[in-house]
Input
Amino acid sequence: MTSPGSGYRSPHFGEKLALAVKAKRTPAVVGLDPRWRELPDELRSQAGHDSRESQAEAVCRFCEAVVDQVAELVPAVKVQSAFFESLGPEGMGSLARVIGYARQRGLLVIVDAKRGDIGSTAEAYAKAYFAPDQTAPWPADAITVNPYLGTDALQPFLEAARAAEGGVFVLVRTSNPGAPEFQDLTTVAGKPVYRHIAEWVETQAAATAGHSGLGMVGAVVGATYPAQLEELRGVMPHAWLLVPGYGAQGATAKEVVPAFRSDGLGAIVNSSRGIIFAFRRPEYQSLSSQRGWQAAVRKATEDMIAELREHTPAGRL
Amino acid sequence: MTSPGSGYRSPHFGEKLALAVKAKRTPAVVGLDPRWRELPDELRSQAGHDSRESQAEAVCRFCEAVVDQVAELVPAVKVQSAFFESLGPEGMGSLARVIGYARQRGLLVIVDAKRGDIGSTAEAYAKAYFAPDQTAPWPADAITVNPYLGTDALQPFLEAARAAEGGVFVLVRTSNPGAPEFQDLTTVAGKPVYRHIAEWVETQAAATAGHSGLGMVGAVVGATYPAQLEELRGVMPHAWLLVPGYGAQGATAKEVVPAFRSDGLGAIVNSSRGIIFAFRRPEYQSLSSQRGWQAAVRKATEDMIAELREHTPAGRL
Output
């Protein structure tokens, strides 16, 4: 039931994500990070190397083909905007097409944009991804945002997301080697900087929690630091955790166990390179040479789903 | 003279900025924040309100007209990417055209993108703004970046900038009311989070310092917090400070005094709304109605330059 005054209205991003995870019976998310140089040779040679326009076209076709392979298997894709932005306005056009295609195939789309700015500038960024009638240039179900500027800089994203029935994932603890430098500084309150941010995320998540107990504001917490994952699951019981770092960045299914609630909800786990470029991994090369790189994408996704099912609470979904 | 091993090569962003500030005898920077709703009526009515394409076109013409007014007066413009991004791929096309136009008119262009991501993703973002041959989609002289992810996430931006003879401004202490929430948390080392970041910026600025003593890595420090401005000038003697918050955000010339070295170099001061939308300010409405909104842009720029000259060390330039 909806608790009065909670700000929860249906449909609600936290609920949509819970339904999608339960429907697909997996928290696996496929990351669309279409690095031009890593694309299958057939797409690169068709495009030629000299025009951003043709590269943007190839990137679009690559992502759509990945979506075709994974649409029935996973609840969502995470699209990395940087690899489209590096191809200029044409690349940003491809980003819009890929988002539209993935949504049309029934996937939730998280745009990993890591945007952050103040006041009306944050509103302008938010407008690029969220509109109540889904007419934004890049209509996302959720985007990632950077909290360094303060919570007044995050609020415009939350408001725009809510009006569009979308969600926001706040960077809390990232997966890179340098993440501890500023994020883990211990404050005089006796806790790391990231925990201050996590506590704010929890207030926002709790205030918007729906039937599943999960709100429309979540947190990015890297899989490469399991101790922080466990701590932050405890600090943010109402927040969806978006967990990058699985696969190519080194984390395994066992390391993401602490991200989940006991019912298998509460976290989605992203793998990008390990899936979309699976045809480059030794274990998928034979399959790929027989049935194409697309078959490797599908098999790597199925393998990730099976691993998460075997080793984490996601097996209870 | 170049100190051996300093990484300094000519031309160098810190030097280019020093030369431009000295040539124009002002540290005033005009911020191109083309909020669609604030544009002059004549541009909005020509464009119509219903198509992002026509809005992007109007935004482009507005910015180019501002550049025409200020190109002889100031060393640089700061372009706010959010207001282009909110207009979709067409808006991002306009951003490229505005950057090209401003550079052609002899202005340095700082793209206020506040990007930040890890590893090869940061490389992809950097490629969007920096290329050694100036063939990047949005060729910037400098961009702003967000440090929350750690210094390994900043390095790809520094490397790409250096190869393109560009610069990077790291967000250290922003100008918004919520800036203190996370940036000012005191760590067990007895200093605020932003100072940890400032100290890293100083190492990078010192390592790349040129003839002027200023490097290719600078810092964003808001004008709305004069005490932090003074502290951070001391902490980062080799860093250019990019100081937002002047004018519409409330800071005056007297408040930005601590940002400068005694010779008037070391800081650039940005005003956006107060200049580009000066025609909406009571003191410029008579001028604007007689000679057009463009005349108000020019007069507001001249007034800002005069105020900085009168009240700050910029008078010694």
About this structure: The first strand of chain A starts at residue 28 and ends at 32.
